[in-house]
Amino acid sequence: MTESFADTPLLTGRFDEALHYATRHHSLQLRRGTAIPYVAHVLSVAALTLEMHGDEDEAIGALLHDVVEDGGGQAALDDIDARFGGVVAQIVADNSDWIDDGTGEQPSWWERKRAYVTSIASKDPASLRVSLADKIHNSRSILLDYREIGDAIWARFKQGQGIATRIYYRELAAAFERERGRMGEAAGPYVEELRRTVDAITAHAEELQGPDRQELFG
Questions:
Q1: Is the pLDDT of residue 2 over 70?
Q2: Residue 70 pairs with which residues in a beta bridge?
Q3: SS3 of 37, please?
Q4: Domains of the chain, first to last
Q5: Rounded to the nearest 5°, which phi and psi values hold at 107?
Q6: For the chain, is the Cβ count within 10 Å smaller at the N or the C terminus?
Q7: What single string gives the DSSP state of each residue in 159-197?
Q8: Burial class (CB in 10 A: 0-12, 13-18, 19+), 41
Q9: CB burial string 104-115: b at 16+ within 10 A, e below
Q10: Residues 193, 195: Cα–Cα separation, whole Å
């Protein structure tokens, strides 16, 4: 098949700047419980966002989506706004389940995750696509490692035998399914991919632990 080309670059110097920003911020960070550089995650999220036909702002937001939550706080969000604009800053804010305002009063894990699931219904399509890309890559990583190392994986999440994490991802899959029509046709197969991956995690948990249909979110 003959290669195709755009008339003008779809990713500009802004994307390059954001890539350097992300690699600097996450330079020492590793994926939880692994020796994988954390930047592998943000690169994967950006790639998935572009595959869903996200634009440059969305791709930049994908690269930076964990900067604020992973130690940057409100100061980092303000800096992102100044460097990359309000659209990108909003995407990053929408994909942070907690923004440190300097008080250090972080809500509980359940409070943050419940609020994140609830917020999906009010996020705009750009933020939804980045969020979906993030959850797809995370769930794929969980599934791959779960199949490799079994229940030892849940020690990474400090959630016992992983039931809380699995409930969270089941709730996320259902929330994205409800909002599928707002994300555009190209995102549809990725909503299905998240569901397949989450269901595979549940199925593997049932093989190892027994029934895994408990529901705690509401």
A1: yes
A2: none
A3: strand
A4: 13-209 (1.10.3210.10)
A5: -65, 165
A6: N
A7: STTTHHHHHHHHHHHHHHHHTGGGS-GGGHHHHHHHHHH
A8: buried
A9: eeeeebeeebbe
A10: 5
The DSSP string of 55-105 is: -HHHHHHHHHTTTIIIIIHHHHHHHHHHHH-HHHHHHHHHT-S----SS--
172-209, pLDDT tens digit by residue? 999 999 999 999 999 999 999 999 999 999 999 999 99
37: phi then psi, degrees, rounded to nearest 5: -55, 135
Reading the block at residue 133, the tokens are 């890309």
- Hey, what amino acid is at 143? L
| Per-residue pLDDT tens digits for 56-85 | 999 999 999 999 988 889 999 999 999 999
Q: What is the DSSP letter of 26?
A: T
